[in-house]
Design goal:
Structural class: alpha/beta
Number of helices: 5
Oligomer: single chain
Largest sheet: 6 strands, parallel
Distance between the termini: 58 Å
Number of strands: 6
Strand order of the largest sheet: 3-2-1-4-5-6
Shape: globular
Order of helices and strands: EHEEHEHEHEH
Helix content: 40-55%
Strand content: 15-25%
Length: 138
């Protein structure tokens, strides 16, 4: 499977080696050329320096042949736009985007984008942990 990852921060740099270890052909895009240092030295994937909002960079990265795209830059708005471009313009079959704002994540999920919202996960986990705790004895 050909996988495109936009953003080589904590999420992208952790997913890229995991995806290649699983046998996928992975290309990572990040606007910071130093982001390559976040990947293992012997990582077999491809790294392109550029901005994921630039369609020529996406094309150079192989978005037209991608089976999946993971969009995980530091900005919700950027992620949402790139995800929509990947899904609607380039027809990538599986597009997953990280969105930190729970309201935005819910809205865009209702519009057909596959969103992952760590903020919602933390809220749910914290709520469940507190509710499961019987508290102090009186």
């Amino acid at each position: 499977m050909r996988v495109l990852i936009v953003g080589c921060g904590r999420v992208g740099s952790a997913l890229a080696p995991r995806m290649t270890e699983d046998g996928h052909d992975v290309t990572v895009i990040d606007e910071d050329p130093e982001a390559l240092a976040r990947l293992p030295e012997d990582w077999p994937g491809r790294f392109l320096q550029g901005h994921g909002l630039d369609t020529s960079v996406l094309i150079d990265a192989g978005i037209e042949q991608a089976d999946a795209a993971i969009i995980a830059t530091d900005g919700d708005n950027t992620n949402i736009v790139i995800a929509q471009v990947a899904q609607k313009r380039f027809g990538v079959p599986c597009v997953v985007t990280r969105v930190l704002d729970p309201a935005r994540a819910a809205f865009y999920a209702s519009q057909g984008l596959q969103t992952v919202c760590a903020t919602s996960s933390v809220i749910d986990t914290a709520f469940q942990a507190i509710c499961a705790n019987p508290g102090r004895a009186a």
